[in-house]
Amino acid sequence: MNKPTVVSGIRPTGFLHLGNYFGAVRNFVRMQNDYHCFFFIADIHSLTTHPTPENLQAGVKQVLAEYLACGIDPEKATIFIQSDVPEVTELYTFLNMNAYLGELERTTSFKEKARKQPENVNAGLLTYPVLMAADIIIHKANFVPVGKDQEQNLEMARKFAGRFNRIYNSEVFPIPRPFTFDGKDMIKVPGLDGSGKMGKSEGNAINLYEDPKSIRKKVMRAVTDTGPTEQNSPKSEAVENLFTLMKIVSKHDVVEHFDGLYNRCEIRYGDMKKQLAEDIIAFTNPIRTRIDEILKDEAYLAKVAREGSEKACESALKTLNEVKQLIGFKSLF
Ligand code: TYM
User: Is 296 a catalytic residue?
Assistant: First the structure.
């Protein structure tokens, strides 16, 4: 039986953080055995924020090494760099003809970016969800493992796939669905600053490639509150976030222990943070060592990228040819 197809990607705008790992990469690793997987580095998407050529190249290499260090196996999954598969941008151009200004302008991530960087509201930012749809549907993905923050972009991809099918009276594209394990909700890993998600641009992230000293410093500085004064009282957002992080990285009984202390008004946030920092370090340290090893092996990185791009191009070209037929492109020579 054919395995369902999975596509997902990450922008190479620095180091991967715990949000990227627990929102996405952990699922990539779990899925690679049972699904036909394509995991890529979204370097074209990252151009919306205008990286220098040096930063772009370093970011791509870093994410590739991090994918591998986290356990994505190029023998099982196709790992590739978005810009090595030009078919994606061709499909993006076609999809743009049926993507409307109103719906693109209403996207939350566009509005947020436009607010954050008013000096750089470029067309790539506006059509970001269209390129993302092209990434996904060019491999006819059935599932897309992403964190909660990508939910709306994925909804747009579903819309563009369905729209194309309808316009050309075809079923060329499956309608992709978000993927989470055990039917759980898509996850949002919180930041350390009291509210919102962990993110590269939010400056509240802990990277996989972060040294223990820096992890301790960041966690100890995490925002909390003055502490509970009544038994079993609800938690403030900042404290809830700390518990959420702990649930993600620590053992169940550790979380229970601190939850009990909180409910009995005996908690000392300093102790909780110390434990959380050590649990994060225990998790990231082996990954950090592997990242260093892999980054040294340029030939291996080049081989993975080359072989991945060959497989991804083959899959993408197949779909693109079908799409061109449907649209009515026929060569006159
Ligand atoms: P990016 O690079 O911002 O994030 C990569 C992945 O990490 C997840 N993530 C989180 N999950 C939970 N909690 C967090 N705090 C957190 N922060 C980040 C994101 O949900 C994402 O899964 N547009 C995408 C990249 C992309 C893509 C695609 C993804 C381009 N084309 C096609 C899937 C399919 C992005 O910017 O992700």
Answer: no
Calpha distance 98→133 (Å, rounded): 12
Domain boundaries in the chain?
5-187+298-327, 212-292
Phi, psi of 127 (to 5 degrees): -95, 15
Give the Å distance between the CA of 150 and the centre of ligand 1: 6
Tens of pLDDT along the chain (333 residues) come to: 689 999 999 999 999 999 999 999 999 999 999 999 999 999 999 999 999 999 999 999 999 999 999 999 999 999 999 999 999 999 999 999 999 999 999 999 999 999 989 999 999 999 999 999 999 999 999 999 999 999 999 999 999 999 999 999 999 999 999 998 877 889 999 999 988 899 987 889 999 999 999 999 999 999 999 999 999 999 999 999 999 999 999 999 999 999 999 999 999 999 999 999 999 999 999 999 999 999 999 999 999 999 999 999 999 999 999 999 999 998 889
Q: Does the C-beta of 136 come closer than 6 Å to ligand 1?
A: yes
> Is it true that 5-187+298-327 and 212-292 share their CATH fold?
no
Q: At what angle do helices 269-296 and 212-220 cross, to 10 degrees?
A: 150
| 5-187+298-327 is classed CATH 3.50.50.60 | no
- Told to judge if 113 belongs to the known catalytic residues of this protein, a careful annotator would answer yes
d(CA 112, CA 321): 36
197 is a catalytic site residue: yes
CATH class of the domain at 212-292 = mainly alpha
Ligand 1 site, residue 62, Cβ cutoff 6 A:
no
